[in-house]
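Bit of a strange request maybe. I'm writing a small parser for structure token strings and I need a real example to test against, not something I typed by hand. Could someone generate the tokens for this chain?
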Amino acid sequence: MKTHETRTLKTAGADLVHDVRGPLPTADGRPPLFMVGQPMDAAGFAALAARFPERTVVTYDPRGLGRSTRKDGRVDHTPQTQADDVHAVIESLGAGPVEMFASSGGAITALATVAKYPADVTTLVAHEPPLITLTPDGPAAVRARAGVRDAYEKRGWGAGMAAFVAMTSWEGEFTDAYFAQPDADPAAFGMPTEDDGSRDDPLLSDRSWAVSGYRPDADAITAAPTRVVIAVGEESENLLTGRTSVATAELLGQRVTVFPSHHGGFCDGEFGYPGKPDEFAHRLREVLDGAS
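Reply from user aminoacidic:
Good idea to test on real output. This should exercise your parser:
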């Protein structure tokens, strides 16, 4: 049985909880495989981590999410702060640089990490970074993002999440037709229509706007020794995160690498929209081993 140890790294700004599956130093001599999301915490990687029984896998809760508590008095999320945290966790492992799979906002954190700490990561697979300002219709995407926040602020979580689903499932650029739509109905998505009064969701509020509005330092990333792969799900073509993936790859002078399934394609059905974790893990193993 693979060992599973939960560790807490106490820093000035946060207590960073992370899970280490397997031995350190690693049994196979390869770097640990570090997985990071945002705003998803380590729980979202359970299915994918289980499909790498031969590797030492590290999963992590970003500060203020999951089990990682903040001590900095802030509620916003920024790639720069998250990159500092990831660097601190990697250093605490004492196993040298890592290979990294990072998804969604975690892919943005990972790009910031490579730019600032280029010796930390040997290979980065950055899966669907939602860098909305890089798209050709960046201003319209920013307006669409604000619409999600406004729905959440006015009518609560269900309305905000319905607006988010409508935004992320829209095909192509955000046109006048998108903004002319009626407000998304949470009941149509099986979401609660009542307002529980909370307004602190990192996905629906403006607390993570610094993440989706980030512009990676392309010069620093391309100068780093890290092999960077921008990954996109085959089902995401023409959706927002598919378009941001293409734009990110172009910023770095490369093309996207296609993976099975969708934005959460590495997950089982525990989050309500199952991906293809077996196929996804197979593809990730290929890419980490050097396939394009």
